[in-house]
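FIELD: query
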Amino acid sequence: MSPKATLIISVYKNVPFLKAVLDSLAYQTRQDFEVIVSEDGESPEVRQFVSLYPFGVPFRHLTQKDAGWRKNRALNRAIIAARAEHLVFIDGDCVLHPRFMEAHIAHFRPDRVLAGLRVLLGESQSRALLGDSAYVLRLQKVVWKSLLFKNGIERPEEGLYIPWLHKLRKLDYLTGCNMSFSREAIMSINGFDEDYDKPAYGEDTDLVWRFKMAGLKFCSLRNLAVEYHLHHPRSWTDQSENMAKGLAKRQNKEYLCINGISKHLTSDEEVV
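FIELD: result
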């Protein structure tokens, strides 16, 4: 039986964080999905961990040579390997609320882009979650309390599970760690643009205008597809180069990117 969705998890070396993310999958209210661990590298530690992890759903682990930031290339290869039409994207530092996959699957339409956000956990909550996977079941109370008492959580309003609120809290932009769309949709813009060789802009912001030019509609999953971002030092990079590339492409209306997924479909490389 084919899975309803493919969950693509982008990772780079951090095994403890990946374990916390994978552990949260066991609590999902829907289990009719597959997992692709999309690694932008080929870490022996990640390979060993994934090979021994007791997955409860079908999974694949894709690697590629560690040659600088090439996340978009890894994502394009994951799309090719996916068995489902519905593709859900998260990062390896984002733990899922138990109804996360349910929300994405329930609201999926081929002509829709589903957009969610994340709550930023503090150090204490992250330590607790890394030490005990069941802590995810108590996080809603912790996030609610953070509205009244400072406890290190940032953007707590994005971590509240309130099923009807997404209808009021619209989103017309994307965060790459919480988004989903159909294979048909991403193929209509030739996948992720691999011209971007630095993180952030090319992972999500670039997709927004390209999807809109392709006629896709955006649907908010705020406060519905909730995810908890594990605390770690921020490694934000200067976006000026990415933004300059994006501006030039947008001015030329290059929503169908040149350096995209199509080259992988016609090459002889093996997706492993």
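FIELD: remark
The first strand starts at residue 5 and ends at 11.
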